[in-house]
Input
Amino acid sequence: MKAITRFSNSLMEKYLPDPFLFVLILTLVIFVMGLGFTESSPIEMVTYWGDGFWALLAFSMQMVLVLVTGFVLASSPIFKKGLGYIAGFAHSPSSAIILVTLVSLAASWINWGFGLVIGALFAKELAKRVHDVDYRLLIASAYSGFIIWHAGFSGSIPLSIATEGHPFVDTISVIPTSATIFAGYNLIIVAALVIIVPLLNRMMMPKKGDTITVDPKLLVDPVSETLPAKSEMTPADRLENSWVLSMVIGVLGIAFIVYYFVQNGFALTLDLVNFMFLFLGIIFHGTPRNYLISIQEAVKGAGGIIVQFPFYAGIMGMMTASGLAGVMSEAFVSVSTAQTLPLFAFLSAGLVNFFVPSGGGQWAVQAPIMLEAADMLGSDPSRVAMAVAWGDAWTNMIQPFWALPALAIAGLKAKDIMGFCVIVLIVSGVVIGLGLLFL
Output
């Protein structure tokens, strides 16, 4: 395994471009494929690209806030103590790798946005304490937990088809989560990955001579500025360094969170996760000034998200408007049977996810084709829907789109972790595929 990992890392370090170059290359690839596999003309493909370019603006802002508010919350004294306490259970590189993977898996199953940030933040805390752990593998392990998000509480596809009046209700009616998220086969796949992925990450630990560590001093969070004497403070200084305003605003935020849970139960959304991170950060930092210092540090890593997400929106526009995503899906359906349709739905979703990295957007494109095929072949539509969900989550392991927040928090590049993630992709693909086919 160490030899395979070394080869995979070497391959990624040599040939995987920066995520920005990656999205530019994807743009050109989809443009050419649209011309070759659909009836779209060059001007039509350009139009699809331009029309879709700003379709993810709201989502881009949500992802920026996931990064910024999560970073700020984790840099607060109370939260650092909590992460530090959990990190204290890791006394060796191997235990650090296993622990961060388990934390990330659990957090991602609860909510994908929560898991995406918490895993990377916890990995940084572990790196401060376990000095001889490979930092690249530590961050890759934190990201690997993201593999199960679409089979958990925040899975957009299973939650969508469990909602009254969803777009495909006339075809499949309403499918409860007991037939998707909490179905026996799905829980078995999740349990298998919870066991296999931490052990796999542990097996990928490089030899001591190949281990790349990080200086803990580089992971130190920004410190608060030295306060002037009270007699020298202006009214503005006193307000910026007063805990009263932070506490009042924070209590308002907590009141809304409590009210939301009372009214809706434990139904986490990305907006609510950001809301929680934002107001807990305000409270835990104590003063507005401390909070602003942490914000200034956090936003430094948001550039990749801001610039790259519009390009992915443009790619998604070309994929959907040209019908290219449908062409890809139909190619897999054409070789499917009632037994194999979930497997091929999983594989097709994994392919489409490279170019349409949005669970909801991908489902809107693939659902009409996959659900019609399920009806024609007599395959279980709930299993087919979960197969698409698993495919959407699966290839995130080598899709820089979703790794950007974690990479920004860690201060790494995509090529630093993708060698490890490729191996997680292969092994998890086998586990998920076999589960969908035989369970």
